[in-house]
Amino acid sequence: MTNSSLILHYFSHHRLSFKTFFFIPTTLALVTTLFVLFYISSTSHLLHFNHHHTHIVSVSRKKTPPGSPLFPDSGHSVSKYHRPLVDLSKRSGGGGRNASQRSAGVELGSNGNCMNNTKVFHDRDIFREDYKWMNRSFRIYIYPHKRNDSFANVLLPVDFEPRGNYASESYFKKVLMKSHFVTKDPTEADLFFLPFSIARLRHDPRIGSPGIQNFIRDYIVNISRKYPYWNRTDGADHFYVACHSIGRSAMEKAWEVKLNAIQVVCSSSYFLSGYIAHKDASLPQIWPRQTDPPNLVPSKRKKLAFFAGSINSPVREKLLQFWRNDSEIYAHFGRLTTPYADELLGSKFCLHVKGFEVNTARIADSLYYGCVPVIIANHYDLPFADILNWKSFSVVVATLDIPLLKKILKGISSDRYLLLQHNVLKVRKHFQWHLFPVDYDAFYMVMYELWLRRSSLRLQLSPSSDSS
Ligand SMILES: *[C@@H]1O[C@H](CO)[C@@H](O)[C@H](O)[C@H]1NC(C)=O
Ligand SMILES: *[C@@H]1O[C@H](CO)[C@@H](O)[C@H](O)[C@H]1NC(C)=O
Ligand SMILES: *[C@@H]1O[C@H](CO)[C@@H](O)[C@H](O)[C@H]1NC(C)=O
Ligand SMILES: *[C@@H]1O[C@H](CO)[C@@H](O)[C@H](O)[C@H]1NC(C)=O
Ligand SMILES: *[C@@H]1O[C@H](CO)[C@@H](O)[C@H](O)[C@H]1NC(C)=O
Ligand SMILES: *[C@@H]1O[C@H](CO)[C@@H](O)[C@H](O)[C@H]1NC(C)=O
Ligand SMILES: *[C@@H]1O[C@H](CO)[C@@H](O)[C@H](O)[C@H]1NC(C)=O
Q1: What keywords sit in the KW lines (predicted)?
Q2: If you average pLDDT over every residue of the chain, what do you get?
C-alpha cells in the first residue's frame, strides 16, 4: 500500500503543475501500478488459499480419483506447495494442456472400452518430474526396534527372501529399511512408518489372528506415549503396509489408524468399510519372480481367455455357470493339469475374477507373462491408479456383464489388442519386486503413491504435544 500511496501522492502533486501531455504516461503508470497491486493481492490470496488447503490436507488427504488426470485443477495444492510460482501456472494448466484435451482421454466406448486410451500414464511428464523430486526429497521415519525386542519377528524385516501370495508386505518393508528414503531424524520425516507385519502377527503363536487387534491397539498406545509424533496428527502422517485381508479388521481396536493413517493394503475395495479410498493406497498383490519376464509374440497366443481358480465367490460361480464348457474361454475350476505359465503365455486375455477379496496375484501374473488382464472385480481400487491408466493395458468388465464376456473380448479389434498387449509389456516392470530396488519397480511406485499422500504441513495441536 506504501507504493500505491506514493504513486497517488506523485500523481496528485504533479498533475496540476505539469502540462497535459504528462497526464497520459502518469495515468498509464498508475493503472499499471494498480494492476500490479491487484495481481500481487490476488496472487497472495492464491498462496493463502494454498496454505489453508494444505492445512486441511494434513487432516484429510485428497488424492486424484482413478481414471482422472494425475493433477486435476483442485486438490493438488500439496504438490504445488513447495513449488515456485511458475510451476503453479503450469500445473493448473494440467501440464500445458487444456480441459477439452484432458477430458478426451477418458471417454468411454459403448462397451466400456476406451478406444482413445492409448497412453500408459495419465501424464507421463508430470509423473517423471515428480518422481525425481520424490526420489530426492521424500523421507520416512521408521519406529526403531531392537533385535532383542520380544516382537522383533513382527517389527523387523524378515531375514529371508519374501515369497508366496502375500510377499508384497514383507518385500516393501525389507526394501524400505535399506533404502535412501529412511531418515533417523524424525524432524525431517514426511511420513512415519508403523513397522508391524500383519502376516507375521498372524503366524506368531503368541498373537495369531484373534490377537492382532489387541496387539495393534497396544502398539499405538506404546508409540504415542513414547514419542510425540503420533499425537501431533493423530496418526495422519503415519502409514502401515499389509497384504493379507485380515489386515482389514486388524485396526478395529485402533480406530485412529483406520481413520487417519495411510493404509497401504492389497484388499483395496471401494466397497469395504475398512478401506478409505483416496486416503489409503492400493498395494499390488505380486507373486515374486526373480527371473526376467518371458516374451511371446501375440500371434502365438491361441486361446481367447484363461482363468484358473477355486469357486469361492458368487462372481466365480457366475463365471462357471456361463463359461464352464466354452471352447474359447478356458475357465478351469479346481486343480490345473497343465503348467500355469503355459496357459498365461498361450492366452490373449487372462481373467482376474474376484474371490474372497477383490485382489489376487493374477493381475501381476498376467502382466508378467504378457497376457492382457481382464478384471472382473467390481469396486477394486486398482494399484497405482493415480499414475497408470488401467484402460490402456487391461479390460475392466463389470460382474453383471459376465454373460457378455465373449462378445466384449471378441469386440476388441486386433489393432486395439496389439496396443493393449504392447502396453502390458510396458507396465509390467511396475509390478515386480526386487531386493535391490530398480527405478519404477513396485517399491518405487508404492513410495510415489505415499508421496502423493504426504502432508506438507503439520498442525501443532498443543504446545505440550511436542515436549518430551
Ligand atoms: C483445447 O485444445 C484443443 C486442441 O488443441 C482445441 O481444439 C481447443 O479449442 C482448445 N480449447 C480451449 C478452450 O482452449
Ligand atoms: C479417438 O479420438 C478422435 C478425436 O480425438 C476421434 O476422431 C476418433 O474417432 C476416436 N477413436 C475412437 C476409436 O473412438
Ligand atoms: C533414485 O534414487 C536412487 C538412489 O539415490 C538413484 O540410484 C536413482 O538413480 C534415482 N532415480 C531417479 C530416476 O532419479
Ligand atoms: C536389548 O539390548 C540392549 C542393548 O543393545 C539392552 O540395553 C537391553 O536391556 C536389551 N533388552 C532386553 C529386553 O533384553
Ligand atoms: C507395549 O509396551 C509394553 C510395556 O513396555 C510391552 O510389554 C508391550 O509388549 C508393548 N506392546 C506392544 C504391542 O508393543
Ligand atoms: C498422547 O496422547 C495420549 C492420550 O491422550 C497420552 O496418553 C500420551 O501421553 C500422549 N503422548 C505424549 C508424548 O504426550
Ligand atoms: C458342461 O459339461 C458338463 C459335462 O462335461 C455338463 O454336465 C454341463 O451341463 C455342461 N455345462 C454347461 C454350462 O454347458
Answers
A1: Glycosyltransferase, Golgi apparatus, Membrane, Signal-anchor, Transferase, Transmembrane, Transmembrane helix
A2: 81
Q: At what angle do helices 442-452 and 167-178 cross, to 10 degrees?
A: 80
Domain ranges in the chain are 1-59, 60-122, 138-288+447-466, 298-432
Whether the model pTM is above 0.85: no
Ligand 5, atom 14, residue with closest C-alpha: 219
Beta bridge partners of 263: 240
**Strand, helix or coil at 297?**
coil
Residue 435 to residues 88, 144, 178, 290: CA-CA distances in angstroms? 37, 21, 10, 9
- Best residue among 149, 153, 222 to mutate for probing ligand 5, ranked by most atoms within 8 Å of CB: 222
Cα 329 to averaged position of ligand 7 atoms, centre (Å) = 14
When pLDDT is averaged across residues 169-175 and rounded to a whole number, the result is 97
Q: Which CATH class is domain 298-432?
A: alpha beta
Question: Which residues have CB under 6 Å of ligand 3?
Answer: 132, 135, 180, 439
Index of the ligand 3 atom closest to the CA of residue 444:
1
Instruction: Identify the residue whose C-alpha is closest to ligand 3 atom 10.
Output: 135
Side-chain half-sphere exposure of 342, counting CA atoms within 13 A: 4
**Phi, psi (degrees; rounded to nearest 5) at 44:** -70, -30
- The predicted-structure confidence for 412-427, as pLDDT tens digits, reads as follows 999 999 999 999 999 9
Is the CB of residue 106 less than 8 Å from the CB of residue 426?
A: no
Q: For residue 243, which of 314, 162, 189 has the smallest C-alpha distance?
A: 162
Ligand 3 atom at shortest distance from the alpha carbon of 440: 13
